[in-house]
Amino acid sequence: MGLPHNPTNVPGWVRRPSFAVKAAVTPRGTQSTGGGKIHEVGLIGGTFDRFHAGHRNLLVTALSRCQMVEVWVTADSIAKAKDPRIGTWEDRVEEIRQALNSQLDRLEFHELKDLYGPAPIHKEASAIICTAETMPECITINEMRQDSGLSELEVISVDHTMSWDGRTISSSRIRLGEIDREGDRWIPELFESNEMVLTPQVESELKDPFGQLIPGPEDEPSHAMSEVLILTEGALGPLIAVGDVTVKALQDLGRPADIGLIDGRTKRQVWEGAEGIDSTLYDSVLECSSPAGRLAPSLLSSCKAAISSWRDEKSSLIIVEGEEDLAPLLLHPLAPIGSVILYGQPGEGVVIRRCGEDAKQRCRRLLSGFEISE
């Protein structure tokens, strides 16, 4: 059986070889390595949000062991209660369809409305495919089947697929912004230990606003910022403000940024208003350096620390010696899906950009155009 075709609209998708199942485990604990019996009908269930390499591995394994696979996808009522950023049932199913479009005649999709679905009473199925996390539920299902006089399902346990850092690829990690759908890092490794220089080609792509421009008078930034706060109410990630004027405007409105970045300047000139920024409003103050037109490892480290602190419900102010103008190129790749990043557009207003996989993808592409400082 060939590999499934790549999806056409999944950001960051890279085709890679599938991984074969290593073991088939029964509830009694016996284990057989390698292939095994080919089943007529197999069952598999899950949320399948942001279809990733681990999902692909699971389903390709299921198709290698079953002639027909029933895919039970968690209902919105359950999934959204877990995390409102999870896609709709229709969108999640569509991503599976696109990823496995060469095998659609062997897949059936159903809505999973409870923990076990039809598995305890399914009369045609003879296998259930899972990972180690859901093995206990599969054991319970077989106990329920025994009580009903039905044959046990063979439980085919599939190893997790690992990301670049040796940890499991998961939808929750993708939503947190830690990895892409293939388990790769969003920021090229070179930025960890090298000062990287903005190139003319990348600079030309940064001239247009990267997001929604909220117009407002330059001498009264609170006007535009008031509208920003209305538009971003209920954001599912941190409110990140880049630039002294932007940070100060939020402070003046009584809603300090969750993460603020300042350098004491505006339009590359010293800004007297920066003295009014109250660092005591933040749980931590981080200091770093990053020269104009460059991204330094210390800025990256500070951004990582601030994102980590936000997950612990703590706010951060990053004071940059040099310039923070390029920081959004690091913040988008690092931030959780649903975060909001704000920065001022001189003479025009404030730019809002919600953090999503499209923004992360664009920033990674732009970062790949930077060069190592000599």
Show the helix and strand layout.
Elements: E1 23-25, E2 31-33, E3 39-46, H1 53-65, E4 66-74, H2 76-82, H3 89-99, E5 107-112, E6 127-130, H4 135-147, E7 154-157, H5 171-175, E8 196-197, H6 200-205, E9 212-215, H7 221-231, E10 239-242, H8 244-252, E11 259-262, E12 265-266, E13 269-270, E14 284-290, E15 294-295, H9 297-311, E16 316-322, H10 328-334, E17 340-345, E18 349-354, H11 357-367, E19 371-372
Parallel strand pairs: 3-4, 3-6, 4-5, 6-7, 10-11, 10-17, 11-16, 14-16
Antiparallel strand pairs: 1-2, 1-7, 8-15, 8-19, 9-18, 12-13, 17-18
Helix pairs in contact: 7-8, 10-11
Describe this structure as you would to a colleague:
The protein has helices at 53-65, 76-82, 89-99, 135-147, 171-175, 200-205, 221-231, 244-252, 297-311, 328-334, 357-367, and strands spanning 23-25, 31-33, 39-46, 66-74, 107-112, 127-130, 154-157, 196-197, 212-215, 239-242, 259-262, 265-266, 269-270, 284-290, 294-295, 316-322, 340-345, 349-354, 371-372. It is α/β, with parallel strands linked by helices. The protein has two domains: 23-175, HUPs (Rossmann fold), CATH 3.40.50.620; 189-372, no CATH class. Helix 1 links the parallel strand 3 (39-46) and strand 4 (66-74). Helix 7 (221-231) packs across helix 8 and helix 10 packs across helix 11. The longest helix has 15 residues, at 297-311. The termini are far apart. Mean pLDDT is 89; it is low at 1-34.
